[in-house]
Amino acid sequence: ETGVTQTPRHLVMGMTNKKSLKCEQHLGHNAMYWYKQSAKKPLELMFVYNFKEQTENNSVPSRFSPECPNSSHLFLHLHTLQPEDSALYLCASSPQAGGPREQFFGPGTRLTVL
Amino acid sequence: QQQVKQSPQSLIVQKGGISIINCAYENTAFDYFPWYQQFPGKGPALLIAIRPDVSEKKEGRFTISFNKSAKQFSLHIMDSQPGDSATYFCAASVGGTYKYIFGTGTRLKVLA
Fold it and tell me: What is the rounded CA–CA span in Å between residue A94 and residue A81?
């Protein structure tokens, strides 16, 4: 595997379900990000982890819970979501949060909340 | 102040033509302006980026033009090809930070 991978690629869940999104980066980076991509809206930064520590929570509702057990893996735990949370969730990584600024994105998880 | 306004929302260009996408910003503290390209089913990938100390940067068929006084920057795709059909996002960030402010995206279709 190379680059940034995300699983699952598609997820359909009910509002009462609990699910998790997984991201893994094979680039040796130290910063990882979660973004939300909705149609006709700018990409929204949700969370940032730098060296496994959360450095940014962009006023994200508590029904989204991130976890970063090491610099290579990032999870987004989902519970009691709303239909408006349906979107493409993108994971990205970069060498470190304050360093070279190119971010490398995964292919995303297309989430549908029924 | 934190917005980056991108236009047009969609663009259709004939093969061999020039595609032009524009972005405008308000925050004069922005000092890094990348363009990302996203194909269906893929995540965005960095295409080209510019800093405000230069007015133009060219990489192959892709050129960023930057107008600091007008607080505008644009992406020009010369000799557009069907393989360039994708969604393009401009973005901006403030010195040394990871916080990109993205535009809303432009869906480009290049007709064969």
Answer: 28
